[in-house]
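The instructor's notes for this session suggest beginning with a concrete chain rather than abstract definitions. Hand out the sequence below and ask the class to guess, before any prediction is shown, which regions might be ordered.
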Amino acid sequence: MACNNILSNYNHEINLCLYKFKQFSFFDLVPVKDTHDLASPPEIFKNTPEISNLAPSSSGLLLADIHGSIHLLNHEFVPIKSWIAHSGGGRVTHMVERKGVLVTLGEEDGVRSPLLKIWDLEKVDKKLSMGTPVLLRSAKVQTGNRPHPVSSIALSDTLSHLAIGLADGTVLLYRYLDQSIFSSSTSLTSIPKPRTIHESPTEPITGLGFREPIFSSIAEPQTNGHTHDKDKDKDREKDNLYLFIVTTSRVLSYQASGRVVGSNPSIVDEVGAGLGCAVMDWHKRDIVVAREEAVYVCGVEGRETCYAYEGSKSSVHTHLNYLVIVSPPFIPSASSASATVRNFARMTDLPAGSDITKVTVFDLENKLVAYSGTFEAGVREVVSQWGRIFVLENDGRVSCLEEKPTSAKLDMLYRKSLYVLALNMAKSQRLDESSVADIHRQYGDHLYTKGDYDGAMAQFVKTIGWTQPSYVIRKFLDAQRIHNLVTYLQELHSLGLANADHTTLLLNTYTKLKDVTRLDTFIKTESRRKSTNANGDDDGTDELPFDLDTAIRVCRQAGYFKHASYLAKKYERHEDYLRIQIEDAKNFRDALMYLRKLGPEAAESNLARYGRAMLESLPEETTQLLIDLCTNSGPLILDKEEVTTSPTTRQSTAGPSYLSYLALNRSAAPAPPTVSSNTAIPPSPSVKTVKLGDTASRRDSINESSRSSTPPPLPPPPQSSTLTIKPRVPAVKRLSPRLYFPHFVDHMDHFVVFLETVARRRWGQSVDVEPAAVAVSLPVEPPVDEQADKLDQIAVWNTLLELYLTLPAAEVADTSEKSSPDVMRDKALRVLKSESIPYDPMHGLILCSSHSYTPGLVLLWEKMGMYEDVLRFWMDRDSEGNTPEASSQVVHHLNLYDPTRPHLYPLVLRFLTSSPELLSRHTKDIEMVLEHIEREKIMPPLGVIQVLSRNGVASVGLVKQWLMTRIKESREEIHTDQQLIDSYRLETKTKLKQVEALSDPEHPRVFHVTRCSMCSGQLDLPSVHFMCDHSYHQRCLADHETECPNCAREHGVIREIRRNNERLADQHELFLSEVQENGFSAVATGFSRGVLNMTRLEEVAT
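After discussion, reveal the predicted structure:
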């Protein structure tokens, strides 16, 4: 298998070997000085020959010497820990550290086999000297009776496996090492028994390395409940641990974990390496093998990559993504193949025969040389620690290779226009996206200046999200580069980073190029990304890659109405779709059908805006839709399957709507109300079938033509002969018809049909049939808002009444009815007479007056109790002289209102005696009026005389007999009043004499009363006599009684009357109101009560 892999990669290797590395100076060489003596290297490195090993660790740099000691160095190369790892003249040969655990291999005197020791660097052994870490395990490394030195060591990152390579070609593998060293056992020799996994006596082991597993959670595809075995095996390989074994002639791989553990190592490559010339790459996935002719990268499947770099190599090391190659000492020459060596030989004066060592830092991923330098004293060790490369020379000097900042490295590449290499470096350096985008931007600017606009745009596209779009757009606004601009704008939209201006620009470019195909593709693009909420989480909805409002607007402006309507219809922008169809495309029929599909809620607001324009184009169909909208409580289109709409509520505005308001606010669109429905009623028939004046044949033809837009009405249900009680119908809320009144300003005939049909279907009200019949034929659902519904009814009938009085009968009347010019006004009169139709009487009065409709005026005045206005109306007509029967109408209506309207007779009497003509025609009527006035006492005779004598029309002979009768009655009344006056005077005179007698002290009073006025018994002593001629037993009177009980009651009533009159005398407002009502009668009553000349009781007492 290894041979096949080698052959399959042969051609690939040849091409790679021909690649010449570009050389840069990405590292600065800085000498490392001692902290106490800046003129010399660190103290610890002065005895360089005694240093046996250097190794990096997470705690610091580890240094081992030939005396068996290990030192842990800090950043200043000062030991912070030192201890003897191998005593008795031993030395440390190998060291490796993982997670604070150090594994050392060394030799000690008296022990033939190498010793394996495991230390815990994070813990200190308190029993030993300060700084000595805890020794976890110690064991011998031996495979047989004959010991062999250790040539290589490898430790997995998880401490689970330890591999030791010997000089005799044997590889020992310790499994589950972590479980052993961290177990509760205290025995130092408690370590797993090693397993010999490879033996090659003729090939010493020169390198070992673990390929770490990748723990991935790749979803396994399902096929009928079973997974694909091949895919499953590939996923398992990523989770397995492999050990690379490098000998002098081969590279092998051994699976250290998984199902096939224990099998023999497989040959990866037939090319081996010398000691120290094999190392794992920085990803720890492949092993790098350095030979004289080239550098090879090998994986578990075989050789992968080859890099041409000729020359001897003494060791290779890894530092981050770099490979450090150290060459063996050689004598520099001006004819050397290496430019670094040639420059060194030219610029330095070394003694003849002096050798140097070359250190080269390779970036294998980007295929460049990051550093190349020479060291005169030779290189002892190279180690990667603290993010830097340290080179220890044989004379004890230490040099540090510090990597330059990424910005400085990129500037070097920019100056040489190596932008592709800069991008590769950014990827390997794992720069953030903004830095990578900046490289693409500079690369795009470079290509733009060279005239490669396509290549520049390819780079600018990759900067989307980090570079302002305006920076790129300004570069490509020329007509010659508009295609590149389209590419950029399309990608901007696909990533969801375009705003409305970008959408406008893109669509304008499409329209300018007349690229309908790309415009179709862009418009019909499905949503490509998920929208996120405020927390950045996916909210489960799709989001368009462009601004929808802008796309619709630009397509409309450019005349691409089909594209604009497609977007509006697809994404349910109902208002935009209707605006396009009506205002732009003038496709009124499609807009009408679309409105029917939308349902009442959306159709209401859009018809409020476009109803007038649609009536101009499709008057019958639009009127039909408006009727269905205002009467149906369900969907506007009846399908076989029932369509339901969600119930919503709407606030209704109050107030009647009159025809005179139609010219106002035609462009204003009110807030769209909503509807609530649970049932659907059949749509009304076509508008023309409802209109008056249409013949049967005309109705049939129009029904046929409108069948596509309006479904036919459903047949009426059969009438039951018996009365059944229906369940209560739930309340529904329909749309207000007042919203659409202004649209019919130029279509009055359709307006009549609209209003009549809405009134009949919605409320069961009609002027053509009896209300009871309408109520039986059309069930009316109760409204949700009764007050708003009542206002709608009033507005509908007010407007219908005005239309009946305004429109001529010839416009809507049938041919057979043309002989009757008052068809419409007869309807108006039926409306006014109806007790069930809710119209506004005051509004009707104004309409009838404005249009001189006399029957309506009289009817409304009578309904409103304005009888005097009726009489005055006919009186005015008589005075005008164009209505001969006006005076007869006055008398006629007076007789109608006779019993309860007495105040009308003086008015009629004044009218009938206003002219000789009226007097001659209505002499008997005048006598009847006078008799009624006398019988009901409506006017005094003097008032009648004043009425008749105001002009010279009526003669005395006309009322002679009536006057004689009145005079006789007056004389009798005067005689009766005179007799009462005489009796009152006599009584007053008698009372005054009694007062005089009682107040005379000269004449004693003699009491002749013999009986008690209280008990009517015979008076006896003691008795009490009062001056009023009343006497009482003393026992019949109460104690301390000083007034006559009989007279006191009478006088008390009189005093109370006087007090009331006194109080009334102070209430001037009441007196004035009585005077305004009764006049002279109120003043006379005041005098009779003494209100006007009241003498207060207090004044009398004083």
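Then share the key points. The longest strand covers residues 115-124. Residues 106 and 243 are 23 Å apart (CA to CA).
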